[in-house]
Amino acid sequence: MSEVVLTDLSEGVLTITLNRPEVLNAYNMTLHHALLAALEAADADDAVRAVILTGAGRGFCAGMDLSGGGETFNNKSHQSIDEHRDGGGELTLRLFDMRKPVIAAINGPATGVGLTMTLACDVRLGVAKAKMGFVFAQRGIAPDACSSWFAPRIVGIEQALKWFMSGRVFNGQEAFDKGLVSELLAPEELLPRARALAREFTASTSAVSVAIARRLLWRMQGAAHPRDAFALESKALWYVGGAPDSREGVLSFLEKRAPQFTMRVSRDFPDFL
Predict the structure, then answer these.
(1) Alpha-carbon distance 250 to 234, whole Å?
(2) Close Cβ partners of 47 (under 8 Å, ≥ 6 residues apart)
(3) Is 51 helix (H, G, I), strand (E, B) or coil?
(4) How far, in Å, are 17, 37, 145 from residue 44 at the CA level?
(5) Which CATH number fits the domain that encloses residue 224?
(6) Best exposed site among 1, 46, 214, 262 by fewest CB in 10 Å?
(7) What percent of the chain shows pLDDT beyond 70?
(8) Taking Cα atoms as reference points, which of 19, 23, 26, 15 lies closest to residue 5?
(9) Distance between the two ends of the chain, CA-based, in angstroms?
(10) CA–CA separation, 210 vs 214, rounded Å?
């Protein structure tokens, strides 16, 4: 049996490919656990500077695998209402906690969890004809993957409500027009652009500085006051001040040469973020 997740590391960029093309990479628990493991490994590996998430074949992820029929979403036989935790939420929380930039290259249909999983990525790139949808209301279920937190922050509460309450499927052009994806590309240009963007994040930057910036910007989405950012940024600046990468960043600028950063995320990332 083929692997449900494929990984390829090149020039510090790890491409994670959902690999169930025969069912448009529909989500099941095997894929769920494989994705979690791949993300965990990527975060722990200092050779990985950025991650691209994409799908094999003509789809990104067609949402939950519904081959189980009407009982697909029924967990009542083995979990109570207080015990149950949504698998999609486990995935997006893992993405939220990543210390590496994550780019979603949405190469085809992305509905349900196949779309909500991308909301925790830092950048979403798409193709014009890709069909997307937050289809939960049309399946008689609730939103998943912490999407009620992510989606309004990305596209605004009104647009999020329009999509979620209708469950309507829309195309990549609409996703771009409403700010869900930041770029529309031809299918053959999608992965090259994702790789180029990943290299922008990694070519001349400190891995630790990138990780700190990612954590700060995401964490402050829920802050009550700019003083919260003031306090946390001050701690981060104190932490990196005088550290090897900050010294190298200044010296390389003054000496007009490319920086050679040596700090590692696995070893040097601050424990307060």
Answers:
(1) 19
(2) 9, 12
(3) strand
(4) 19, 11, 23
(5) 1.10.12.10
(6) 1
(7) 99
(8) 19
(9) 40
(10) 6
With H, G, I as helix, E, B as strand and everything else as coil, classify residue 70: helix
- Let me know: does 206 contact 219? Beta carbons within 8 Å: no
Residue 48: beta bridge partners? none
Residue partners of 182: CB distance under 8 A and separation at least 6? 123, 124, 125, 176
Q: Cβ neighbours of residue 163 under 8 Å, at least 6 residues apart?
A: 133, 134, 151, 155, 170
HSE (side-chain half, CA atoms, 13 Å) at 152 = 9
132 and 237 co-located in one domain? no
Q: How many helices (H) and strands (E) does the chain have?
A: 12, 9
Measured distance CA(48)–CA(159) in Å, rounded: 35
Q: How many domains does the chain have?
A: 2
| DSSP β-bridge partners for residue 132 | 110, 170
Please give the residue range of the domain that contains residue 241: 207-268
Q: What distance in Å separates the CA atoms of residue 44 and residue 75, rounded to the nearest whole number?
A: 32
Instruction: Check: CB of residue 116 under 8 Å from CB of residue 144.
Output: yes
pTM for this one?
Answer: 0.95
pLDDT of residue 84: 76
Quickly list H helices, the chain: 29-44, 87-96, 113-116, 136-139, 147-155, 157-166, 172-177, 187-202, 207-219, 226-240, 244-254, 265-268
